[in-house]
Amino acid sequence: MRLHHLHVAYVEKASSSSSPAPSVSPSIPGSAFPAFAFKCLRPLAPKISLPEPRKMIAPPDFVPRARNASKLLNYAVQVPTAGTTRWNPSPEQIKVLEMLYRGGMRTPNSVQIERITDELGKYGRIEGKNVFYWFQNHKARERQKQKRAALLTLSTLDSSSLLAANETKEGPEKKKKEAHDSLTSCKRRCKAWGDGAGDGDAATTEAADCTDDVTLELFPLRPQGKA
Amino acid sequence: MRLHHLHVAYVEKASSSSSPAPSVSPSIPGSAFPAFAFKCLRPLAPKISLPEPRKMIAPPDFVPRARNASKLLNYAVQVPTAGTTRWNPSPEQIKVLEMLYRGGMRTPNSVQIERITDELGKYGRIEGKNVFYWFQNHKARERQKQKRAALLTLSTLDSSSLLAANETKEGPEKKKKEAHDSLTSCKRRCKAWGDGAGDGDAATTEAADCTDDVTLELFPLRPQGKA
DNA sequence: GCAAATTAATGATTTATTCAAG
DNA sequence: CTTGAATAAATCATTAATTTGC
């Protein structure tokens, strides 16, 4: 009954970082979006326009994980030539991302990610997945930070049981698994963030309508358009 | 000093299965692979060949979840024309998927997914994400089924404490969070399932080399090639 | 002062849990 | 109730800080 949204991945230009010019690197070729930048195109059958096109998660790459391979068999791991490993966000990028986060953005949709990626691309190599991951991780870690602080506060003004001995050096100390949404009661708050319903060829959707509860514009610098 | 791997997304061919002569729903347009079908290609810099090219998850679609959207604002959700909502696997599809699962496949890589999707496309509408999700869910649910059975067995032959009252109607009953890998000791067994390291243009990798501990061929019916 | 060893942050995956369509 | 779809939590792995020995 819904539309089917075909997701079209558009390739990134492949060899992009030949001359990174690290700090601000203006010329990040292509690579606007890795792959998960698919948008919902043809419904596969003449469907009506959904309320929203249903999102879609992007499954992993299916390639098995190579846990500590590089460590185990580190034979001649030469040339750290250009940064090609994991994304290393520049201060500007982090600043903007945090601004957006504080603005209330939790899980940006494809259009938003595209914008953000495009914008942050000015400050260094970045891909859509980086933006996505950043929000995922940041959200999660802010939450757990808050949680920790919360129950530490509770315990402090409750019985002062000195549970500070927990994280002396033990990072993952079994976790409490409690207080899932106690303090951070804003569980699933503003889940409706834009739409991402790029219908068919209308890829130029504004996506600036997300006036949910935050009034922060995505990128005031770039109201619209690609240029 | 590490090596880096750049992951390059490759576009899907869009309309590959133009005339599959399917048994059930004939006109499945393209959609051989959604987007998460990227593979790790060139390292962007002359890196040495990794043990394996590092996988890459495919971040969700970024479109916010529409939990009960269609229910909340179900204004004129007309025409249930053709099934376009969620994938409804045909018996043949399920049969093949279960066969593959029993064969040992847990998380197929992109090449495998592509194949499976393409193959199962003969039996009805299907997308790569469906295959991916199926394996995810099936794995998870088989695991929890096994876990449940395991500790139920234990409790039965231990003290017969009748903990069956737990899941009368309460699906998510806080979970035990215990016995993470007690009975299902095969934790992360055959994680090495193929490679997905389609090197460069050699997209016609066999992907039939995964002779890990299962000898089941992916699709004996279709040894290789698209046609 | 620098480079190897160690620790802390955090980017990237995988797994578990939840939601809702059929 | 089953199960496809999506999100959140947990986990892993890599990179930057930091420390230590020279």
UniProtKB/TrEMBL annotation, chains A, B:
GO CC entries: nucleus
Biased composition (Basic and acidic residues): 167-181
Domain Homeobox: 80-145
Domain of life of the source: Eukaryota
One GO BP: procambium histogenesis
Residue ranges the record marks as coiled coil: none
Name of this chain's protein: Homeobox domain-containing protein
Native source species: Oryza meyeriana var. granulata
Lineage of the organism: Eukaryota, Viridiplantae, Streptophyta, Embryophyta, Tracheophyta
